[in-house]
Design brief:
Layout: E1 3-8, H1 16-27, H2 31-34, E2 43-48, E3 52-60, E4 65-74, H3 81-102, E5 105-108, E6 111-112, H4 118-125, E7 134-135, H5 141-150, H6 152-165, H7 179-187, E8 199-204, E9 209-213, H8 235-255, E10 260-263, E11 277-280, H9 288-303, H10 318-330
Parallel strand pairs: 7-8
Antiparallel strand pairs: 1-4, 1-5, 2-3, 3-4, 5-6, 8-9, 10-11
Helix pairs in contact: 1-3, 3-4, 6-8, 8-9, 8-10
Length: 333
């Protein structure tokens, strides 16, 4: 089974020269990599190891690269994973370096993993050893949806109480205008978890693995899927992400009457939001936490800076800008 990952721009297009230089590490002098591709088409390339198979799709932009997509698979999935991980590491390193060099976002199966360590990226694309204990769900997806929505009032009360205690009362009236002061306050509160905080590895039934902080107060959604495990954030930050993501999607739902909460279902086996609470209508389904996490990632890159790759700082308008884009998609614009 193949898995999709890649690099997408965050603002300006990816540099073509940087893309070609980094992909040349694996693809060498492949003429399709170095040739100019007409608008509306794409360059298709491949690289195979003894265990790893890959297919690369380079989509041109106006002057640079609009998007890079990679399908990756294990040719012998029943064998021990170590050899596969060793071969897959250079592929991930190329994508990570391209995201960092071009200011883009590294995506694995529609989840933003920009800035994640290499070992965690490998955990996302490789199956655990035989005999690893799988994580199971104790309730149906429908029951969980009801429980998630029933906790909505408590999330909003938590937001109001914490903001008021910090001397920044918030008007949470579900308006577009309320998102700017909310996010401005939140960006000052989000804090990473200590790097040496204890964690345990948890395996999902589908063979994926994630890191779960031990002795932590985690939101109800933490660990329900591979992409709902942002362990890099402190307990209070996770509660903040939980509350703001629910509030932001409720703002959207009230702005577009056609949107409703439901259990997510996708056409493909690898659909990332399968079984999760989503806001759905005419556009793509929106899972609340993964919708907001990319905005929080901008804060993380400021809190944990890389001196060699300065990060673009977050702004108070980030959440409102996200809302505007999501609104256009929800309305079919």
């Amino acid at each position: 089974m193949s898995l999709t990952m890649g690099v997408v721009p965050s603002g300006t297009e990816l540099s073509r020269a940087t893309t070609v230089a980094l992909l040349s590490r694996l693809l060498g002098d492949d003429p399709d990599l170095h040739a100019l591709v007409p608008s509306g088409e794409y360059a298709e390339l491949s690289w195979d190891g003894e265990r790893v198979g890959t297919q690369w799709f380079v989509y041109p932009g106006r002057t640079g690269v609009g998007q890079l997509e990679v399908s990756i698979w294990d040719s012998f999935p029943n064998r021990p994973a170590d050899a596969y991980r060793d071969e897959a590491a250079p592929v991930l390193e190329v994508l990570r370096d391209l995201a960092n060099a071009s200011g883009g976002r590294l995506i694995i199966e529609e989840g933003d993993v920009t800035g994640a360590p290499l070992d965690e990226l490998l955990d996302l694309i490789s199956v655990p050893s035989v005999g690893a204990p799988p994580a199971t769900r104790a309730e149906s997806d429908e029951d969980y949806l009801h429980r998630y929505l029933a906790a909505g009032d408590d999330r909003l009360a938590w937001l109001r109480d914490h903001a008021a205690a910090a001397g920044t009362p918030l008007r949470l009236d579900f308006s577009r205008e309320s998102l700017v002061p909310l996010w401005q306050w939140a960006t000052g509160r989000l804090e990473p978890r200590a790097a040496d905080a204890p964690k345990e590895k948890v395996f999902l039934a589908n063979g994926s693995a994630y890191q779960r902080p031990t002795d932590a107060d985690l939101p109800m959604w933490f660990g329900r899927s591979l992409f709902l495990a942002p362990h890099v954030w402190s307990d209070e930050s996770l509660a903040l992400i939980d509350a703001i993501s629910f509030y932001a999607l409720e703002c959207l739902r009230r702005a577009v009457p056609d949107l409703t909460w439901r259990v997510g279902h996708g056409p493909d086996r690898g659909y990332p939001h399968e079984g999760q609470p989503v806001l759905a209508g005419r556009g793509p389904e929106l899972e609340p936490v993964t919708a907001v996490i990319p905005l929080a990632a901008k804060v993380y890159r400021v809190r944990v800076p890389d001196p060699t790759r300065p990060a673009k700082p977050p702004t108070a308008e980030d959440l409102r800008d996200w809302f505007d884009v999501a609104l256009q998609r929800a309305e079919g614009a």
